[in-house]
Specification:
The protein is an all-alpha fold. It has one domain. The chain is built from eight helices and no strands. It is globular and about 65 Å long. The chain starts with about 35 loop residues before the first helix and ends in a 7-residue tail after the last helix.
Length: about 220
């Protein structure tokens, strides 16, 4: 369809409200916001999955949507890893180390996994998960390594150039199969998200008990 150069779409105007909670129609679309870590963590994955399905059904959209899709999946993984580590004081009954606290403030998946892997088996045991298999840990390590190699700081799929002006993505990555990526990253997301759910539930339960019995929950 040819672009209509004579049309004039609505322009932004002073006084317009971007975030309106009340509208004079019943079309819906209302979003309730709050500091809900579940909504943040799951929301990024659901958005990635929806975009993936749309892109795969509309091949011409794959080139442009690949960037937000990878970013959304990566950010979901980052948030899930961080939520597990945040639960360590309640799940393992110990303080977070200074290094763990520092890494929680970064976007480095490799550092987050480096903090989590040595205590992964203890966390699983604490939340009544079966002992992780060596192949599972090796697989997670490999997936995180590949993501970190392509996008170490969660910037390369958000910006086309680095702060120094160099292309964000490595020369070796000039194409990839979006369907395959979505299927593979879904495996990592399923595993990490399930442990995140388990540790969060246990952490909240123990946190409530600590509060009820006036225990120092900060360790």
């Amino acid at each position: 369809m040819a672009f209509d150069f004579t049309s004039r779409p609505p322009r932004p105007r002073k006084g317009d409200s971007l975030f309106r909670s009340q509208l004079p129609d019943e079309r819906g679309g209302y979003a309730r916001l709050g500091s809900d870590p579940d909504a943040y963590t799951l929301g990024y994955r659901r958005a990635a999955e929806q975009l993936s399905r749309y892109a795969l059904a509309n091949q011409r959209e794959c080139n442009s949507l690949a960037y937000p899709i990878v970013f959304l999946y990566r950010h979901h993984i980052e948030l899930a890893l961080k939520r597990i580590i945040y639960c360590v004081p309640w799940v393992l009954r110990r303080y977070l180390t200074d290094q763990e606290k520092k890494n929680l403030g970064s976007h480095r998946l490799d550092l987050l996994w480096a903090d989590l892997e040595p205590i992964f088996e203890s966390i699983c045991d604490s939340v009544n998960w079966s002992k992780p298999e060596a192949d599972d840990l090796e697989g997670i390590r490999e997936y995180v390594s590949q993501l970190s190699a392509v996008d170490p700081l969660s910037m390369n799929f958000r910006y086309w150039k680095s702060k120094k002006g160099a292309p964000s993505l490595p020369d070796s990555l000039n194409s990839f199969n979006l369907r395959h990526f979505s299927e593979m990253i879904g495996r990592l997301a399923d595993f990490i998200e399930a442990l995140d759910t388990a540790t969060t539930a246990v952490g909240e339960m123990r946190g409530d008990l600590d509060e009820a019995y006036d225990v120092d929950a900060q360790y």
